[in-house]
């Protein structure tokens, strides 16, 4: 009886810890997307020539310049560590929901764990004083990585596959957002009808714009590989600026930027109502 109670207490404690890590991570993700969206709006209003950097590095730099900015950057970095640990727990023990223990879900959690570990590491390094890390340009990082991989045996094929995977992920994100599949992860019973409608606006609009951004970046990676030109690879900032250069002009960038702001707000809603 005592052993069962101890095991049950350990599981309950782990569940509470995981929930706290997940919600902190979702808030941190929301802050970054919200700031990237705001920076992209500024670029759109400046005709696409703004000197600011609309990506994770720019968001961290923007946060650092606020009152108590250093504390805020540390908080975001710690929140992202929580996100990574949550995804690791999903890979090890299964995620919430009926499909949480399937191999595909666990594998996706592993990918997310690696991604958020890298992002958290860069933000923490920036908070610790390494200004070339968390505030590094994703454009330069994309070009550097593409150039390095293109130099490998079969590097061109690898970059094409990576670009196709990123583009496919973007389409997948957009379609799932449009279909409102995120509702399966929400505690809808705790939400009023008005709240559900608001979250749907945030989730659909924000998710579709986020997916469009990923798909476009993947397309540029494929172009870079086909042309064997790493300079054609684009990070988040360059990809966003590309929208301003379309016939729709800065209005398309404005739409995408607003979508990223909405996705940031959606992340806050997920932090409140997601079943973790």
Provide a brief overview of the structure:
Helices cover 75% and strands 0% of the residues. The chain has 276 residues and is an all-alpha fold.
Task: Name the overall outline.
Answer: globular
β-strand number: 0
Q: Helix coverage percent of residues?
A: over 70%
Question: Biggest sheet, in brief?
Answer: none
- Average of pLDDT: 90
H/E topology pattern = HHHHHHHHH
Low-confidence stretches: 1-6
The number of helices is: 9
Rounded radius of gyration (Å)? 19 Å
Strand composition percent:
under 5%
* End-to-end CA span: 28 Å
Provide the structure class: mainly alpha
Give an overview of the whole structure.
This protein starts with a helix and ends with a helix. The protein is an all-alpha fold and 276 residues long. 75% of the residues lie in helices and 0% in strands. α1 (2-45) crosses α2 and α5 (138-150) crosses α6.
Q: What is the strand and helix layout of this fold?
A:
Blueprint: H1 2-45, H2 56-64, H3 69-93, H4 103-127, H5 138-150, H6 155-178, H7 193-226, H8 236-244, H9 250-273
Helix pairs in contact: 1-2, 1-3, 1-9, 3-4, 5-6, 6-7, 7-9, 8-9
């Amino acid at each position: 009886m005592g052993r069962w109670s101890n095991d049950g207490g350990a599981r309950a404690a782990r569940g509470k810890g995981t929930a706290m890590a997940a919600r902190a991570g979702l808030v941190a993700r929301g802050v970054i997307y919200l700031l990237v969206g705001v920076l992209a709006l500024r670029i759109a209003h400046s005709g696409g020539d703004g000197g600011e950097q609309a990506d994770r590095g720019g968001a961290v730099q923007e946060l650092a310049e606020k009152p108590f900015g250093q504390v805020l950057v540390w908080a975001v970095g710690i929140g992202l560590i929580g996100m990574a640990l949550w995804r690791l727990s999903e890979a090890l023990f299964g995620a919430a929901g009926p499909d949480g223990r399937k191999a595909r879900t666990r594998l996706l959690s592993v990918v997310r764990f690696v991604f958020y570990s890298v992002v958290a590491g860069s933000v923490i390094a920036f908070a610790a004083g390494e200004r070339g890390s968390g505030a590094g340009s994703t454009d330069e990082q994309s070009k550097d990585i593409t150039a390095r991989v293109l130099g490998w045996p079969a590097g061109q094929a690898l970059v094409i596959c990576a670009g196709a995977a990123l583009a496919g992920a973007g389409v997948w994100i957009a379609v799932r957002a449009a279909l409102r599949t995120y509702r399966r992860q929400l505690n809808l019973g705790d939400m009023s009808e008005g709240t559900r409608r608001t979250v749907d606006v945030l989730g659909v609009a924000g998710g579709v714009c986020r997916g469009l951004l990923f798909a476009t970046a993947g397309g540029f990676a494929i172009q870079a590989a086909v042309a064997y030109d790493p300079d054609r690879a684009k990070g988040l900032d360059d990809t966003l600026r590309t929208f301003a250069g379309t016939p729709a002009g800065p209005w398309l960038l404005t739409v995408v930027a607003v979508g990223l702001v909405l996705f940031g707000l959606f992340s806050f809603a997920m932090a409140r109502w997601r079943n973790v």
